[in-house]
Amino acid sequence: MKNIKLAFLGFGNVGRALAQLLLAKRDLLREQYRIDWRVVGIATRRHGSVLNPEGLDLVGALSLAEADKDLSSLAPERAAMDGVAFVRASGAEVLFENTPVNYQNGQPAIDHIYAALEAGMHAITANKGPVVHAFQRLTGLARANGVRFLYESTVMDGAPIFSLWQEVLPAARLRSFRGVLNSTTNLILTLMEEGKSFDEALAHAQAIGIAETDPSGDTMGWDASVKVAALVTALMGVPLSLDQIEREGIEHISLEDVVKARDVGRRWKLVCQARHDDGKVKASVRPEEIDANDPLYNIMGTSSAVTFVSDVLGDLTITETDPGPHTTAYGLLADFIRAVC
Q1: Are the C-beta atoms of residues 283 and 117 closer than 8 Å to each other?
Q2: pTM (whole model) above 0.85
Q3: What is the pLDDT of residue 79?
Q4: Residue 77 pLDDT > 70, yes or no?
Q5: Strand 280-290 relative to strand 304-310: parallel, antiparallel, unpaired?
Q6: Order of strands, edge to edge, in the sheet holding 245-247?
């Protein structure tokens, strides 16, 4: 049985959900996949960093982090080092890189993942930045070193999108896609349809932890644009930068606009789309007023959906209902199994 050494870089909601899932699925991993694991390092922004090659108490780490306490009691010495140094010192075989996304350049996550791949580790992430800003560099390094760079959870929270196209649909070429890919803006538009103003809907999204204190990454379309760029880059094989995407957010959509559309059976959605023709890609993120015949019409609240069109299949739609950290964590777990089996 394999006993895989794991390191967590980032131990927020997603990292902790992954830890809980690993614990819950431990017996199944042993019995079905002949995999066991131990966590040899955890690095956090708020609770310190710890290393122990013999393994850390993951249940204890969860308890400390959820109580907002330092992790230093889990190991003889606190690991005071930056992310790259932590990766190199961990001695892990698999790195879970779940630091916050940097829309503009993907750092420091790119450096973290590069260090892991360079050291012969599999690198698994929910961070979209490295896929958009360093895809060829990281996949090339992974290939050269005989390891995997996997990123299923970067779009739609762990729903099987990248693995579907890369493993389940051989020889299929993706022509286009269209979807709702940002939960925060979809929730805001849903709440506005119920009569809340933009500011009231945003405040509610922030209160339940869906939207950040600074929501501009969502409301101005940056998060959705990064997801579009990730899909195009990884699945269409065309590197796409953010400045190549026509981007428009929802901040100018008024309650009057939403109610007027609702009263005639229509709905506003932040629509993400891209089309690949003759080696060129045209991509956009913008609000659209859609009717009841549109596949995206009934995608409400924090749910997401995307319809793919290929050269060999008709429309193929994936829908995800009310995702959260647990669904993102599942994508990371699925990537872990793919990497080590």
Answers
A1: no
A2: yes
A3: 67
A4: no
A5: unpaired
A6: 245-247, 280-290, 267-277, 174-180, 304-310, 316-320
